[in-house]
Amino acid sequence: MGENAIEIEGLRKTYAASGSQPPKEALKGIDLNIPAGSIFGLLGPNGAGKSTLINILAGLVRKSSGKVRIWGFDQDVNPRQSRGAIGVMPQELNIDPFFTPRAALEVQAGLYGVPKSQRITDRILKAIGLEDKAEAYARNLSGGMRRRLLLGKALVHRPQVLVLDEPTAGVDIELRQMLWTNIRRLNEEQGTTIILTTHYLEEAQEMCGEIAIINHGEVIARDSTAALIGRMDAKTLVVHPETPVDPLPQMPVGVDVARRRDGALAFTYRRGEISTGAVIEAVRNAGIVMRDVATQEPDLEDVFVALTSNRKGAA
Ligand code: ADP
Ligand code: MG
């Protein structure tokens, strides 16, 4: 198997033209390896191609060209094994309203050829907190319950790789917490590799050890979360002056200063070019008495904005 759960080479997808819609090149040659055992984030703006990529992994969308190996199985050579190694919680809520959660899980297990004796339906119902709704019709479940059921369906064949497409979009905080607890536990206790897309960057920063950023069908960055954030060279020193400062002080080249609404002064500079000590010194030399001072580190949001806007902020 090697140490990658997923290996993708030169993956392309062009959706055919339909009606007045021209063909759409959604993936333009993706190369991406995802290490086994990781919690891996796939980030990118709307329309970037994240769902297309995930749906190709899941076998729901047919690729135009390229290679995909899941748990060492080439999708084209060993379709059954590669499909069996992955479970997908899709972005849309496609649940049969006439099935109960128990029936939905049983049918799904049947689809994956899991023998009756090896099914873990009750364990899954418990894990997703739907034990007491096991016999309720899906049309009577709340949105949050349906989403949990989707997670349960992705787990019936105990896949080594679990893929979650926007699992927490439009979900309340309590359910979000529950989903993350479940997902972390799967990763820690069973060693399940987790791949997720989310547009909550804070969530990705907290959950994912490694991240790929996709934009316009291409991977534009792929690194550990810490290294991605470390790439942002900018740092901000926030100073609350003892008395209001007006006009803004003159600062050395490379230090930008802005006034915040609360009267604080924000000095932004590049760590590689000037030290925090030197910035503080310059503030003192400008005659500003500091009542309070703090530094702010860039976060994943800053990295994301820098990379996906056309500015060259980060590299
Ligand atoms: P994301 O999940 O990152 O928002 P998608 O993979 O859903 O992006 O979409 C990538 C691009 O492909 C978008 O421009 C989208 O409009 C287009 N697209 C997605 N699905 C289809 C489809 N079934 N037919 C045609 N175009 C599609
Ligand atoms: Mg999507």
Quickly count the domains: 2
CATH top level of the largest domain is Alpha Beta
CATH architecture designation of the largest domain? 3-Layer(aba) Sandwich
Strand content: 25-35%
Give me the Rg, rounded.
24 Å
How many β-strands, per DSSP?
Answer: 14
- Helix residue percentage: 25-40%
Oligomerization: single chain
- Structural shape: elongated
Topology order in helix (H) and strand (E) letters: EEEHEEHEHHHEHEHEEHEEEHEH
Number of helices: 10
Show the helix and strand layout.
Blueprint: E1 4-15, E2 24-35, E3 39-43, H1 50-57, E4 65-70, E5 73-74, H2 79-84, E6 86-89, H3 101-111, H4 121-127, H5 143-154, E7 161-165, H6 173-189, E8 193-197, H7 201-207, E9 210-215, E10 218-224, H8 225-231, E11 234-241, E12 256-259, E13 265-270, H9 276-285, E14 290-296, H10 300-308
Parallel strand pairs: 3-8, 3-9, 6-7, 7-8
Antiparallel strand pairs: 1-2, 1-4, 4-5, 9-10, 11-13, 11-14, 12-13
The structure holds adenosine-5'-diphosphate (ADP) and magnesium ion (MG).
Magnesium ion (MG) binds next to helix 1.
Description:
The structure is a single chain. With 315 residues, the protein is of the alpha/beta class. It has 2 domains: 4-229, Rossmann fold (3-Layer(aba) Sandwich), CATH 3.40.50.300; 233-297, Alpha-Beta Plaits (2-Layer Sandwich), CATH 3.30.70. 30% of the residues lie in helices and 28% in strands. It has helices at residues 50-57, 79-84, 101-111, 121-127, 143-154, 173-189, 201-207, 225-231, 276-285, 300-308, and strands at residues 4-15, 24-35, 39-43, 65-70, 73-74, 86-89, 161-165, 193-197, 210-215, 218-224, 234-241, 256-259, 265-270, 290-296. The strands form 3 sheets. The chain has a 6-stranded mixed sheet with strand order 6-7-8-3-9-10, with helices on both faces. A hairpin with a 2-residue loop joins β4 and β5 (73-74). The protein is elongated and about 75 Å long. Magnesium ion binds at residues 50-51, 91, 165.
